[in-house]
Amino acid sequence: MGILDVPWDDVDSNEEGLFPIFENVENRVRVPKVVKSFDITMRREDRDIEADYVFIVWLARKRVGGVFLDGSGQAISREEGHLAVCASPDKFPVINPEIGPLDIDDFFAELPDIEDYPAGEDDENYQVDYVNSAIKIINAKNACKACPLRAKCLADSILMGDEDRDFGSNSNVRPLPGIWGGRELKDRKSIARRFKAIRNDYLSTAMAPEKKRMYERKAEQFINDRP
C-alpha cells in the first residue's frame, strides 16, 4: 500500500481526536456531525508508511546531491506545484455547507492556549474558540485528503527543516507549523521521529542490506518519476 492509498475514513472512533475534551460541547457550539467524522487520529501503520515515504524522498535528494534537475531540492517539482489544492482556493472541497468555504489561513489554524482563559477548559469562551479552531483544522485536513501532492507536501514540510546538506544522521528535523500533507504539527513530529530512526538505521549497520537496496530502488524510482 502506498502513501496515497492510506485509508482515512475507516476508523470507528474519534476518542483521541480534537473533540473528546468537551462532553456537552454540542450544547454550546454546534458541531456538524460530518466534521467529527473526519476527526481521525493518526494510526501507527499510517505513521510508518508516511515516514517511509519521507525517507525515500530524503534518500532521493541525497543521491542527487540535494538538487533535482529542475534546480529544486523539494519533493514537489516546479512543474507540478500548481496542482496543489491549496494553490487554488476555488478547488477547496467543503465537507459541509454549514461550515462555509475554507480559507488559506485555515491551514495554519491553531488550537487556543488553555492558559489564556481564567476558567481553563470550563471557560465557555475557550470552548467556543477551541471548537471553531478544530473545525478549521479538520476542514483543512480534509482538503489535503483530495490533493494529488499530499505525500510530497508532507515530505517537504518535514525535510525543509533539515539543514544538513551532508545528509548526516544528526541534523535537526523541524516540521513546519500548520497543516501539511493532511497532518497537523503533532502528527508530523511523530512522523519525523520515525523518519529519523529509519535514516539512522540506513546510515549505520543496523539496516539489513536487502532493505537498504529496497529503499535505494524506490529512491531511484522517485527520481525517475519526478516531473
Overall description:
It is a single chain. The protein has one domain. It is built from six helices and no strands. The chain has helices spanning 33-37, 44-63, 124-145, 150-159, 185-203, 209-225. The chain is elongated. Mean pLDDT is 79; it is low at 1-15.
Main β-sheet: number of strands, strand sense, barrel status?
none
Structural class call reads mainly alpha
Low-confidence stretches: 1-15
Question: Which descriptor suits the 3D outline?
Answer: elongated
Number of helices: 6
H/E order of the elements?
Answer: HHHHHH
**Strand-residue proportion:** under 5%
Tally the structural domains: 1
Mean pLDDT: 79
Per DSSP E runs of 2 or more residues, the count of β-strands stands at 0
> Termini distance?
22 Å
Oligomer: single chain
What is the rounded Rg?
A: 19 Å
Please estimate the helix content: 40-55%
Question: How do you describe this structure in short?
Answer:
The protein is an all-alpha fold. Helix content is 41%, strand content 0%. The chain has one domain (3-225).
Topology (elements, then pairings):
Elements: H1 33-37, H2 44-63, H3 124-145, H4 150-159, H5 185-203, H6 209-225
Helix pairs in contact: 2-4, 2-5, 2-6
